[in-house]
């Protein structure tokens, strides 16, 4: 299908735009000249109400559910029908749940994976043919420092973000030959309403765990967050204008502190267990340097 008008503007397709970092990115992008934003949301009225009316002509708000593959396909089809291309994709839709592994139900774990991982994969699957044909494009996958390190009572959220981090590393290798840039963003705490709107608690509560204390701890992190959402958006926009962007970016001073400690601890653990690791080789296997 030929587009209604093939725009020369830069076209952004962003999921999770009713609040938080996704909404902020839309709010910043619509102010830029030669830019069109497709805001994917389950709550179009809410998204529209938070965008300055003088910039509404620069945004197309589409109601879609990333967990529904047909819904995603239709939203991409509508985008292409209107603009004829997609330049930048931001997979931002996601939520969190607090609860120890024993407290979490299959339903709760599957639901968070449906949004955080499979929803992202639905988008990637259906934008990739377009970007491959264009031989260009940027895919930003929003993970988290929680996608690298484990946190108690956060197993479902962490594991879903671990999956995003792993998938993104693979996509980068698969898609770079086609001129597609795949970038993993792993922020630490940013000022947003994520705890209020994007975080829930396991229905099954077990007194032995400190799930309630974990909620308070997360509240403290958000209330004292150093991350500036405007600077997050500015960074994403700047990266989209970089012909050779980094593949993996940690965002926030706290992210750097946490990841340095984590990587250091993992390296130390590996060295500590070196004898165990190499003991599993065949006796006759050629010796290699390690």
TrEMBL record:
Pfam families: adh_short. Gene3D superfamilies: NAD(P)-binding Rossmann-like Domain (3.40.50.720). Signal peptide: none annotated. Belongs to the short-chain dehydrogenases/reductases (SDR) family. This is Uncharacterized protein.
